Amino acid sequence: MSHTLSSADGQERCFWCQGSPLYVHYHDHEWGFPVTEDRRLFEKLSLEGFQAGLSWLTILNKRENFRAGFANFDFHQVARFGAADVERLLQDAGIVRHRGKIEAVIHNAQRALEMVAQEGSLAAFFWRYQPATPSTGEVVPAQTAESLALSKELKKRGWKFVGPTTVYAFMQAMGMVNDHAPGCVTRAAVAQAQQRLQRPV
Length: 201
Known about the structure:
By secondary structure, the protein is an all-alpha fold. The protein has one domain. It is built from eleven helices and two strands; from the N terminus they run E-E-H-H-H-H-H-H-H-H-H-H-H.
């Protein structure tokens, strides 16, 4: 079974990104490319939490609204959100209006501040969980030993909506693993970006 499909431009891409031009752009320019900036890491983990039970394209279509509602995912600001902000967000038809997920992002922003104080940065903490063996992209699991370990540690530190499947999706999105399919036009570019990466410490 092929894990790629030919796109309108004739290039082979992972089959899952064919739903819209926005999805193709995300696949080609974001998914799998290494991220080391703390705000972007917090955004990616937060959006993966919102995605639980929904399609990623739904979240991608609403991403700019999420950014507007959550102060561009600046966790220093989000950590100060209160009850009025929760109610404001629950009235925002441009995002996923799920009280538990909204409150989890605010709660996790507070945990993110604690992590930066303890570890120096979110990036220094998260990148410790990069698998030693690179993914071939041939079989894409829902979770791995590394995502289980990271999920367990995040929960121990009080984070919410960070189950091992959500965490593995985050690891894919932030470029800790390269799960682009063999033959995908973007796989080699992601591999090169990962090789150039200087892991945060």
